[in-house]
Amino acid sequence: MYDLASQIGGTPLLRLRRVARGVPAGVELYAKAEHLNPGGSVKDRPALAMILAGERAGLLAPGNALLDATSGNTGIAYAMLGAARGFAVTLCLPANASPERRRILRLHGAEIVETDPMRGTDGAQERAREMAAAEPEKYFYPDQYNNDANWRAHYEGTAPEIWRQTEGRVTHFLAGLGTSGTFVGTARRLKEFAPRLRAVSMQPDSPLHGLEGMKHMRTALVPGIYDPKVADENVEVATDDAQEMARRLAREEGLFVGVSSGANVFAAVRLARTLPAGSVVVTVLCDGGGRYLSEHFWDEQ
Prior knowledge:
This protein is of the alpha/beta class. The chain is built from eight helices and ten strands.
């Protein structure tokens, strides 16, 4: 049986060449095209996993609404799946989330509770917790930042796909930290396949940044599922560099993706330039650029 949920995952692994000019001969750079999931982002995977876990446990039942905090992408996945599976969705979202994300959420029928933009996803989390505690009989609160089904979706899906798609040749995996599910789950499983694999986590270079969905861990509420021991190295990326790479990906690779994808690729290219021949670097294209079209950086040259 083919339904919407069955189409999540199985995304292509794309070789990046033009933006990787200057990388030593014999070093390969790939990006997992998670923006091609049906909901348009890497968050389709954990959203589905958390929903299925809630349904199995009887926590998401007829008459319940799903409630969670989001920067946008997990919320869109929740809203899409809620529309497809017939349950209501309420989302706590920072008020400065892109208008495109808010519009997509509303088109899927989600209720949006806007939170303090200066508090980012931390403020959204606090509000969702308050609402869930006040009406526990009304809401199923998966709490994506503290739900093991989040990272396990990547442990069980994303990582084995990367392993097969690289024919077991992947030597380095790099991904940004938001909930940290993508990085923790994928890197944890890849290290089981290849104990010598190097896992590199990426985050914004300051608390005030423009990388939607990413966390500056030193100044943010640290997700319960985050395990700093998984990373062999931690790197930071400036918003300007991420935006420039997002533009380059569109113009040089034909990949119209968002700023967090630009940050991942910028950091992956920088890493690849330091590696010996035979290295295979994999990173993640988190979502599509259409969710950020109102931002002015696209017009810069």
